[in-house]
Specification:
The chain has a seven-stranded mixed sheet with strand order 1-9-8-5-4-2-3, sandwiched between helices. A three-stranded antiparallel sheet has the order 7-6-12, with no helix packed on it. It has a two-stranded antiparallel ribbon with strand order 10-11. It is built from 13 helices and 14 strands. The protein has two domains: 21-111 and 118-253, Aspartate Aminotransferase, domain 2, CATH 3.40.640.10; 254-378, Alpha-Beta Complex (Aspartate Aminotransferase, domain 1), CATH 3.90.1150. It is an alpha/beta fold. The chain has helices at residues 15-19, 23-36, 43-56, 67-77, 94-102, 124-130, 149-159, 211-220, 242-251, 255-276, 304-313, 343-351, 363-378, and strands spanning 60-64, 85-88, 106-109, 134-138, 162-166, 174-175, 178-179, 186-190, 204-208, 225-227, 230-231, 289-291, 297-300, 352-355. The chain binds pyridoxal-5'-phosphate. Pyridoxal-5'-phosphate (PLP) binds at residues 66-68, 92-93, 95-96, 140, 166, 168-169, 190, 192, 202, 204.
């Protein structure tokens, strides 16, 4: 039977496939931490911070409880608060905009570039003119490819704004040969299980090249204290657990191999979908993207919802990242945006579909998914 007629199941993500080959090591690391009874901070967190610093090429890395908290802590460290505005993209996971509001500031959205899905730098100057209260910019490196950072940094530097990279989906991604995490003033990474480097639950890390910001971030994650029970700032409780750090340290040396497998899968999809003549748009890789880490492989197509339903019937998992841009979310209505304000984001929300791209996916799985996509559009 050919792959196209088999009743295969291809989930969007298969974490068990990653876990099984490392089961013994993971269980041993968990046992080691449990036996030590040292759950908070400790040597594994310190070691992971050093290893992520080396991996991203940043002098300072500070673990925290999630990527969402990393964004919040970064804004606090940058001194963003009530009365301030923060420029970002409406086409992102909620945490990006949510962190701005949690910090007491107001999001100002700029539409994305139609090819990269990332903040369109051409929109920035007019918004900075119209919004003098903007104090920081959060470009998002969506789906594993960096935003066009040189113009973002040039606009920010000209006005003394802080740039916080939302690199939750982009560990190891490179822009003109430079890694995510080194491109702005502070960067935020997530260890949510679906990320390329995922933990056993929530976790996150911040990177920065600035020693003073690093010191402040290290304090802010422990209630703003540099010395136990003495508080310089009002921070939060947002630490990375030792258990998470111990497991993430086992996974980090495997990350490049997994990323390469994702890249091979992406190349396979491109070749197959083109050959089959499937009428879908494939993710663009602009010149500035020197390393795409494919946290997601997102195609665009007509009748997206029907395609998704059809693929589900064929045993294929997909996801829509994201069905409703931030400016149209109920909780942000008071910001005063309306439908039509960001047409590129709105169009993408209607047409984008993420396909399975996880490293353990086989060539036959990809063949099957592509065959079904082509079959849907032929029908
Ligand atoms: C773009 C983006 N920003 C922020 C986050 C928040 O990370 P976390 O889920 O670790 O809080 C995520 C991940 O879910 C994300 O994809």
């Amino acid at each position: 039977m050919s792959a196209l007629t088999t009743n295969r199941r291809v989930p969007l993500l298969d974490l068990k496939a990653q876990f099984e080959p490392m089961r013994e090591e993971v269980m041993a690391a968990i046992t080691r931490v449990v036996e030590s009874q040292g759950f908070i901070m400790g040597p594994d967190v310190k070691a992971l911070e050093a290893e992520i610093g080396a991996y991203t090429g940043t002098p300072h890395a500070i673990g925290c409880a999630s990527g969402s908290d990393a964004l919040f802590l970064a804004l606090l460290a940058a001194g963003v608060g009530p009365g301030d505005e923060v420029l970002t993209t409406p086409y992102t996971f909620f945490a990006t905009a949510g962190a701005i509001v949690r910090a007491g500031a107001r999001p100002v959205f700029a539409d994305i570039h139609p090819e990269t899905f990332n903040l369109d730098p051409e929109r920035i100057p007019a918004l900075l003119e119209a919004h003098p209260a903007i104090k920081a910019i959060i470009p998002v490196h969506l789906f594993g490819a960096c935003a066009d950072m040189d113009p973002v940094m040039a606009h920010a530097r000209a006005r003394g704004l802080t740039v916080i990279e939302d690199a939750a989906q982009a560990i190891g991604a490179e822009y003109k040969g430079r890694r995510a995490g080194t491109l702005g003033d502070i960067a935020c990474f997530s260890f949510f299980p679906s990320k390329n480097l995922g933990g056993l639950g929530d976790g996150g890390i911040l990177t920065t090249g600035d020693a003073a910001l690093a010191e402040k971030l290290s304090a802010l994650r422990v209630h703003g204290s540099k010395k136990k029970y003495y508080h310089t700032w009002v921070g939060v409780n947002s630490r990375l657990d030792s258990l998470q750090a111990a497991v993430l340290r086992l996974k980090l040396p495997r990350l490049d191999g997994w990323t390469e497998a994702r890249q091979r899968n992406a190349a396979d999809y491109r070749e197959r979908l083109r050959k089959l003549g499937a009428p879908v748009a494939l993710p663009a890789v602009p010149d500035h993207t020197s390393r795409h880490i494919y946290n997601q492989f997102v195609i665009r197509g007509e009748r997206r919802d029907q395609l998704r339903d059809y693929l589900k019937e064929q045993g294929i998992g997909t996801e829509v990242y994201y069905p409703l841009p931030m400016h149209l979310q109920e909780c942000f209505q008071e910001l005063g945006y309306k439908e039509g304000d960001f047409p590129v984001s709105e169009q993408l929300a209607r047409t984008s579909l993420a396909l399975p791209i996880y490293p353990e996916l086989s060539h036959e799985d990809i063949d099957y998914v592509c065959g079904k996509i082509a079959a849907f559009y032929r029908a």
